[in-house]
Amino acid sequence: MKTEGLIEVILYAQDMAAQVAFYRDILGLEIAYPAGLEDYRQEYWVVFETGSCKLVLHGGGEGKSGSDAPKIVFGVADIQSCRAELLAAGVHVGEVRSPAPGVLVVDGRDPEGNAFSIEEHQG
């Protein structure tokens, strides 16, 4: 299996407004989605442009070590064949899911239990 590279790092956020303020106002990252909002407290998914890899804040973090650890996401051209290759290599991965229109995701864990995903963007 060949990935198209690291496409995003997901950080789980307990206080979305504080996290957005830090990454946007302190570190100077530009918000790609949803851009231009005054208040990000109710947002569940905020994407920052950081070059070839995006930083994503994901709401709903519970402050639990391990379950709220960052997740790395690799882009792939064909999620079905990549999932099949991972399974054939003995990697435990989940089913293909679609959390948003045009996005297909498969979640897995590396040998030390770190979360990763492969993701195909359609269209």
Structure description:
- By secondary structure, the chain is an alpha+beta fold.
- The protein has a single domain (6-121), classed as 2,3-Dihydroxybiphenyl 1,2-Dioxygenase, domain 1 (Roll).
- The chain has two helices and eight strands.
- The protein has helices at 16-26, 79-88, and strands at 6-13, 30-33, 45-49, 54-59, 71-75, 97-100, 103-109, 115-121.
- Strands 2-3-4-1-5-8-7-6 form an eight-stranded mixed sheet, with helices on one face.
- β7 and β8 (115-121) form a beta hairpin.
- The longest helix is centred in the N-terminal third of the chain and has 11 residues, at 16-26.
- It is globular and about 45 Å long.
- The model has no long low-confidence stretch (mean pLDDT 89).
Helices and strands, with pairings:
Elements: E1 6-13, H1 16-26, E2 30-33, E3 45-49, E4 54-59, E5 71-75, H2 79-88, E6 97-100, E7 103-109, E8 115-121
Parallel strand pairs: 1-4, 5-8
Antiparallel strand pairs: 1-5, 2-3, 3-4, 6-7, 7-8
